[in-house]
Specification:
Blueprint lengths: L1 H20 L7 H65 L6 E3 L18 E2 L5 H9 L2 E3 L6 E5 L22 E5 L2 E10 H4 L4 H30 L2 E4 L8 H10 L8 E5 L1 H7 L18 E2 L2 E5 L8 E5 L3 E5 L3 E6 L8 E14 L5 E5 L6
Parallel strand pairs: 1-2, 3-12, 7-15, 8-10
Antiparallel strand pairs: 1-13, 4-5, 6-14, 8-11, 9-10, 11-15, 12-14, 13-14
Helix pairs in contact: 1-2, 2-5, 3-5
Length: 369
């Protein structure tokens, strides 16, 4: 650590000063006091060096432990993939099964991306779509049963009542956002020749594609819901096309809200276009910064966003509901004459907007793209 090196260098200089003091034949009281002061500094530096060196040892231990844990997780995932392969083979041999399930995502934080289930279940492998929704701060409701009613209302402001005065009423009539289970399916066909392979990577890719397809559909649906529900919808300056001031107007349009997780989201093509547009002048740099911020907020480009639109809002105010785990069904019959086995992933999901006022959509930004 550079700080330890700096302290040792400082310590060496102080020791040289102490040595110079002792070169005189007779030490005066003043010189003794000076030497003692320097010696106290040496003791302080030595103590600080010991603390830093100990911390360095602890950091190395953590790195070793993380590496060991990662290796264990990699081995665990490999075992799960092999289990999936064996389950597919048994399903075909026994006429198909419907008992193999992937656990739902149970956390809305960046941690616990993969949740270990019991022996008869498999972990949900990493999904880019879910990772994207988590970064935005989207709210997840899992293990639902029946219709799920979420209060949907705008933000209100409390008051400081005077002495002996009644508390002010919110006077808000919340809407009822009802999440209802909707079936999402994704199918992949594999040949019997593929099933005979022993490389676990093949089966990981099969499972990964199925899971990704489900969550991609959920992400696309979420943006469709925002399109339907967003209270504020604007158009760009049609005379000049999309310009930076349009982006700023989006922020102003919902400026009366306290935003928990604000961010801009648009398509990759609009993102690329904004990288070529200046802020307020040609010398102020691109509107879409290299650190993926726009107007000072995090900004993302995703194919799930609808074409020619820019979204801005509080992403904790949209939600994804999931009913039970994703079920994987094997059908060895329908395409048996082709030597194909159909694997279908089935999930029950719904998406919704809990506060319509929390979003602004800039529409029709195709001019100039």
């Amino acid at each position: 650590m550079k700080r330890i090196e700096d302290l040792k260098e400082k310590r060496s200089k102080i020791i040289s000063q102490m040595e110079e003091i002792l070169k005189v034949e007779d030490l005066t009281a003043e010189k003794r006091a000076e030497w003692n002061d320097l010696n106290t500094k040496i003791e302080e530096i030595d103590n600080e060096i010991r603390i830093l060196e100990r911390q360095e040892e602890l950091n190395k231990q953590i790195v070793v432990e993380l590496k060991e844990n990662n290796l264990e997780k990699m081995e665990e995932r490999k075992d799960l993939v092999i289990e999936f392969r064996d389950w597919l083979k048994n399903s075909v041999e026994n006429g198909g099964k419907t008992s193999f399930r992937a656990d739902p995502l149970v956390s809305s934080t960046q941690s616990a991306m993969i949740n270990k289930g019991v022996a008869s279940e498999i972990d949900v492998l990493y999904s880019p779509s879910i990772d994207f929704l988590k970064k935005l701060g989207v709210t997840f409701f899992t293990d639902l049963n029946g219709n799920f009613v979420v209060p949907s209302m705008a933000e209100d402001l409390a008051t400081f009542p005077g002495e002996d005065a009644d508390a002010a009423s919110a006077n808000m009539a919340p809407d009822a956002l009802t999440l209802s289970a909707r079936r999402v399916t994704h199918r992949q066909s594999i040949s019997r020749e593929t099933l005979s392979q022993t490389n676990p990577g093949i089966y990981q890719s099969i499972l990964q594609n199925l899971i990704n397809g489900i969550y991609n559909a959920v992400t696309y649906d979420l943006f469709d819901q925002i399109d339907t529900d967003a209270a504020t919808q604007m158009t760009d300056d049609t005379a000049t096309g999309l310009v930076y001031k349009d982006i700023v107007k989006m922020e102003a349009s919902i400026g009366g809200l306290s935003l928990n997780s604000p961010a801009y989201v648009t398509t990759p093509s609009v993102k690329a276009y904004l990288k070529t547009k200046s802020l307020l002048g040609t010398e102020n740099g691109p509107a879409w910064s290299l650190d993926n911020t726009l107007n000072g907020y995090p900004a993302y480009g995703t194919p799930a966003a609808n074409a020619n639109k820019v979204y801005f809002g509080d992403w904790t105010k949209v939600c994804v509901g999931q009913w039970g785990p994703i079920e994987i069904v094997v059908d060895p019959y329908s395409d048996a004459k082709k030597g194909l086995i159909n694997i279908t992933a089935i999930g029950l999901f719904d998406t919704g907007c809990m506060n319509k006022r929390a979003f602004c959509i800039l529409k029709d930004v195709s001019a100039g793209l």
